[in-house]
Design goal:
By secondary structure, the protein is an alpha/beta fold. It contains 16 helices and 20 strands. The structure holds nicotinamide-adenine-dinucleotide (NAD). It catalyses: betaine aldehyde + NAD(+) + H2O = glycine betaine + NADH + 2 H(+).
């Protein structure tokens, strides 16, 4: 199986190679086969990406809003046209089942390009009457923006950053995760085919050190990172030195609260989506599932039955529900938490270890795992695992469960299941989380702003809110009368 791109980087509207960069390989996590050999960007590639982005940005910022919108919408059409090929590539790069990548990756990236393409022509300023004189505002681009991606939703993350940045007239240098370098290159190709001027969207490959070099580059105006809290802290510190603007989309340990009046079947579906989709590798996952004591046993019985029915296997088979984890470090980490949960005294309901898939013995497969009788202080209930490990905790009182749900440094997402409309809104109101769901979980349509409270992040992606993070307002006061001075 090969997924070798024409070259490692896409700079100035074409593929370029770096002769001096470190080796960077992409593995298919279901077999550990190397599917692509790439090179990290050397200093020359980095310098040329920034230089071409600076030049491209000037041309792009002078392009009409309507034309910017047309280019983004055309790129959306191209992603939809190529969805199957892009989905197979994403499956090879990440190990996520094709059943998912066909609907959730390039497809959501296309929705995002279309949304911001439609929004572009509306990005106007305002007229402010000052009684004779007046003021107006202009919404101006920031300049060259840096995007740094995580490995769980590679093309989606690239689109979530590129689409609003480009709609606002910025250029972008995007560094994918070193674990999943491939599909961002395809986005760059699609944008070129759609008519984006050369240099406006560039992709360069590399590890954390390249990310740090990009963040501290004097010619960049903004950085948007999707990654862990630890990386977010480093990026924020570096960006702070030059007061570079930041958007940080970081980790979580989100609560999903299921009250006694909830529809149990729907609540089980939501808990499954909140923990096992993408093999549990989703930042907003509701990994602390608080279930009211009165329905705990019924909930766990249905959950165990349905989890055991999940098809774990070849990600390229469209019948497969759960694929492998993305990498060996992630595999080791998730297995260590499965062991820790048992050592900490949680009750293992199902799963709990490595999974063997016939014909794919080298893959990073683990069983979808449910722990019950989890207590708040256990490490499995406090730390982000980023794998298919669900912690079920009991509760009885509303105030108590809200306090426990909020007792975390994270604040990315939260969910509530209840048929009591007042209670639903009352509880959501008190949850310290940037994205909340009532009677569902993990749906992130592009129209809805997405981002974290507390240590889960700074800024928002998606929705109109993203525009504020990729543009700046210039206010212009126009004097229509004389100027008075004291002396
Ligand atoms: P990571 O923090 O290890 O890496 C993220 C990116 O940052 C990679 O491209 C990496 O090369 C780069 N990087 C590493 N060190 C850097 C540095 N010092 N300076 C600049 N860049 C640096 O995260 P990961 O393992 O790729 O992804 C998993 C994490 O991402 C989880 O914590 C998850 O919750 C989070 N995540 C958040 C969201 C969100 O939208 N909130 C979405 C997906 C993933």
């Amino acid at each position: 199986m090969r997924a070798q791109p024409q070259a490692s980087h896409y700079v100035g509207g074409q593929y370029v190679e770096s002769t001096n960069g470190a080796d960077l390989v992409s593995l298919y996590p279901a077999t550990c086969e190397v599917i692509a050999h790439l090179k990290a960007a050397d200093d020359q590639v980095l310098a040329s990406a920034i230089a071409t982005a600076k030049a491209g940005q000037k041309i792009w910022a002078a392009t009409s809003l309507a034309e910017r919108g047309r280019v983004l919408r055309k790129a959306a059409e191209i992603l939809r046209r190529d969805n199957r090929d892009l989905s197979v590539l994403e499956t090879l790069d990440t190990g996520k089942p094709l059943q998912e990548t066909l609907v959730a990756d390039a497809a959501s990236g296309a929705d995002c390009l279309e949304y911001f393409g439609n929004l572009a022509p509306t990005l106007t300023g305002e007229y402010i009457d000052l009684g004779g004189s007046f003021a107006y505002t202009k919404r101006e681009p920031l300049g060259v923006c840096v995007g740094i991606g995580a490995w769980n939703y590679p093309i989606q993350i690239a689109c979530w950053k590129a689409a609003p940045a480009l709609a606002c007239g910025n250029a972008m240098v995007f560094k994918p995760s070193e674990v999943t370098p491939l599909t961002a290159l395809k986005l760059a190709e699609a944008l070129s085919e759609a008519g984006l001027p050369d240099g406006v969207f560039n992709v360069i490959q590399g590890f954390g050190d390249l990310g740090a070099k990009l963040v501290s580059h004097p010619d960049i105006a903004k950085v948007s990172l999707t990654g862990s809290v630890q990386t977010g802290q480093k990026v924020a510190a570096l960006a702070g030195e030059s007061l570079t603007k930041t958007t940080l989309e970081l980790g979580g340990k989100s609560p999903l609260i299921i009250f006694e009046d909830a529809d149990i079947e729907n609540a089980v579906s939501a808990a499954i989506n909140a923990n096992f989709y993408s093999t549990g590798q989703i930042c907003s996952n509701g990994t602390r599932v608080f279930v009211h004591k009165d329905i705990r046993d019924a909930f766990l019985a249905r959950l165990a039955k349905r989890t055991q029915a999940a098809v774990l296997g070849d990600p390229l088979d469209e019948a497969t529900h759960i694929g492998p984890l993305v990498s060996k470090p992630q595999f080791d980490k998730v297995l260590s938490y499965m062991e820790l949960g048992q050592n900490e005294g949680a009750r293992l309901v199902c799963g709990g270890g490595e999974a063997r898939v016939a014909g794919l013995e080298g893959g990073y497969f683990v069983e979808p795992t449910v722990f019950a009788e989890v207590r708040d202080e256990m490490r499995i209930a406090r730390e982000e695992i980023f794998g298919p490990v669900m912690c079920v905790l009991d509760f009885t009182g509303e105030e108590d469960v809200i306090a426990r749900a909020n007792d975390t440094e994270f604040g990315l997402a939260a969910g509530v299941f209840t048929k009591d409309i007042q209670r639903g809104h009352r509880v959501i109101d008190q949850l310290e989380a940037g994205t909340c769901w009532l009677n569902t979980y993990n749906l992130t349509p592009v129209e809805m702003p997405f981002g974290g409270h507390k240590k889960s992040g700074i800024g928002r992606e998606n929705g109109h809110a993203a525009i504020d993070h990729y543009s700046q307002i210039k206010s212009v006061y126009v004097e229509m009368n004389g100027v008075e001075a004291a002396f």
